[in-house]
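Pasting two entries for a bug report.
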Amino acid sequence: MVYPRPLTEGSKIAITAFSSGVPKPLHARLDLVLDDLRTRGFEVLEGQCLRDNQKHVSAPREHRLRELMQFMCDDSIDAIMAPWGGEIAMDLLDEIDWDRLQQAKSKWLLGFSDISTLLSAIYSKLGWATCHCTNLMQLSLNQTDPLTSKVFEHLSLSMGSSFTQSNAKFYEAQYADYSKKPNACFSLTEPVQWKLLNKHCNSSESVTFSGRLVGGCLDIHAVLYGSEYFNPEFNTDEPLIYYLENAELTPTQYFRALQGLKLRGAFNKASGILIGRNAVTDNEQAPLSSIEALEMALGQLSIPVIYDVDVSHLAPNLTLINGAHAVVTLKNNDADITQLLI
């Protein structure tokens, strides 16, 4: 694994919306989080593809591609952040000059949702560690919960270091409206409990497994798996820990996505699977629930499957480093994950 340089005071962070941009009613929130980056001590470079959003993107593909490549190849830049995810970052993958990027200095890319499209592609194509975590638009300084507030602390660690995170106590069920309240924080009201899906594979009160972390938004990764842009086995012979979260899939789509990954052998080298909190509310009248879909697809696997994990469109989110060696432990209602940057 290639770990980018740690982020410290003075590090330069470039901001570009290579997927969805930020419309005018949300500019006050964008300005707030950009100012907070500066307050943290970072130098902020704002791109041109950012403050607009038309047809799910900040700018035409060629503009987004040019700016992303410019930032990726600029060795003075230490990290690249998008404001948030979106829908079709996948449209850039076959246009990126991956041979040119092989010569560039590695840098952190971080975020979740559609951002995970690029995170996994960079991990698979370049062997760089990438960071699946809270998106920029949620990373205000007044957000003080333990998972969100420590993102940059984790990214300040050098290769060979480790850090541990525990499960959140509560999560939010409703998104904040940043157009009305630019300084809003998460409303963490719902209890969190990670759960073991397939208890038949573990006879003790606790479960522990380890491996290299890979994953992201299930809606995307179920499509990308097997392509050169999500090839988890390419960079390691070690066991893998998949983490996957559902953004928009109905229960039947959710089943097909997970079942498809299983049938294509995605989990053959996995030591365990982390399934994030489902962001889709079940229709009580529907014949199949999301948990039933999950049980149908993964319930008979012989490896641990833990669900309702803090990887979700329903905040807060763990900071997970793609490519890091991780140890996951679940005992009763307590869970933690330790990541080693090796």
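Entry 2 (this is the one that rendered wrong in the viewer):
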Amino acid sequence: MKMNPPSTKTAEADAQGVRISEGGRVRRRLIGATAAAGAVSALPRFAIGQGAWPSKPIRIVVNFPPGGLTDNIGRQYGEFIGSKLGATVVVENRPGAGGLIGADVVAKAPADGHTLLMSISTSLWHGRVLYSRMPYQPDKDFAPITLFPSGALLMGVNAKLPIRNAKEMLAYAQKNPTNMGTYSPASWPHLIADTWNGSEGTKFTPIHYKGESPMWPDVASGIVHTAVGSHQAMNVHIQRGTIRPIAAVGQLRSPRVPDLPTFAEQGFKHPVFTLDGWLPFCAPAGTPEEILVKINDAILEGYRTSPKVKAMHESFGIPTGPTGLAETRERWAKESPIWIAMAHRLGIKLD
């Protein structure tokens, strides 16, 4: 099969804030409309835990474009957080530079619980070894609130290729120059391509996109051979017969394609194939503990009780829920070094 050359086009993201809506109407709640509320908002930080928070709209910065998994999680959980806390929640997409632009916005925001970050792990964990300079310090500038599971991301190939499983993909790439779409530099597909190039003699060229939305149409059309991402984002192309899923990343199969074996079940044991992926949700460092607890509690309640959140999890094939505050901190400390080490082996700088 003759493949077209890689596309140089990437979708431009809408960087404007998007207000969470319900029933097609924008929900607006007036926070701090009285002079008394205005006075409360001026109290020092230690008073926030005494009932003054939230005192204005809560902004969730998603550092990727609309339409992908990160964006959907931010919107669905953001809507529940707003209803639980009686606050207006605004979701603002700020993509660019592999997520660094949006993360930097939050890193430099006041630590008052009114600006939060919905991110992939690259921006906060292993991105530090890929950039000579980062505008923030990941370990010092953020307070983790929860880790959302990414679920079993899938490797999909253009359906015209003679590839039906991961071993056939590997064999094809060992014999042919092959490209792999990634939704961000240093993302999971980038690490998979590098791992195979280093250990199996493949010839993958990563093609970086700003999120999943512009990536999968290029796989479906044959511009890109293969990519890794969420079932929801690629499903329309699976239904059309233009993309074929061949393996699932992580410990569990995807509930959306239960007959599809994982990479591990197909014999691939490297951590890049077996680790479970996480999407960090953070506040600026120094945000009061009481606020972190309240937000985490709302997120966990949303997972247990919200029909919209449940539907979103089912749509993306994510059978597990977000982590509690203690587990979040434990996993952050334990698993981020593994991702950082894998990124070190890329041996590249992106700036």
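Dev reply: Rendering is fixed now. As a check, the viewer should reflect this: The two ends are 35 Å apart (CA to CA).
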